[in-house]
Amino acid sequence: MKRMGIVTLFVITMVFLFFQFGFAEKQEIERKTVRKTVIIFHAGSLSVPFEEMEKRFEENHPGIDIQREAGGSTKCARKIADLGKPCDIMASADYKVIDKLLIPDYADWNIRFATNQLVLCFTDTSRHAEEVNTQNWHEILREPGIVWGHSDPNLDPCGYRSLMVLQLAEKYYGIPGLYDELIANRPSENVRPKSVDLISLLQTGNMDYAWEYRSVGVQHGLRFVTLPDEINLGSYRFDDLYDTAVVKVAGKEPDTFMEIRGKSVTYGITLINDAPNPDDAVLFLNYLLDPDGGLAVLESMGQPPFVPARVPSGDMANMLPDTLKSLIEVRQ
To answer: Which residue range forms the structural domain that includes residue 239?
Structure first.
């Protein structure tokens, strides 16, 4: 009996040690597999290329988890400035959003890394799909029953840029009152928070036409009308002309407004001053700004990158993390 008691005690002890060892080993494995997080707020038009960049970056850095949140660029910036949402990197479809809403209180610098242009997207099921072209699109958008839309100018740069295109079109085609006529045929429910929200409406046949960036049209397999450079906001040669288009949007404070003037489409990106994980965020920026890395992804998806990326002054270049300085040039 005594021997049986000793054996039983031995067995219980071994089982206890086994489970203790297993538990400790499990804790060690979990400790080693904990991934550090990089939080990125970015323009909705960057969703597809950033998804691919996230995949490629994480394959080479399995200890880092890229967490992205897409939205209208203005809305993203306000989540940082007004709501205090934690964020490491902010990428905007309009670099001016970073300049106006984040610098200097929430960010120190702003790298311009890509361009784009506005196009009028549609599908095979859109009314007049086989007729619409560079010369008649504005006639079709004024036609009763045609459903078209754009994103919210107060939340998304593509929204105010869409309105700028309509203003410039009035001058280019020489049709007084064209802008007002077009807006009158676009009910407010056709204005959505961000431009990519309109894609599903196009694809399901609930909308005939939507203003998007060319890269978005390419990435989602949409048909689109390419507009003249004088109105598509895609050419630096016409910045003086684009500057004549002005849209009023909500300001920083409630019930205030600010004017946005037209300028060729330029995307900007920055590191937030109180970034939760700045070291790994800079590592991702190194990849994104690499001509053979993230910039090549943009190029492959219909969005022309700046190679190299650029900042507007030497003073701003000096503010950059050392590892980024070799990837940019000083250029307006």
So the answer is: 118-261
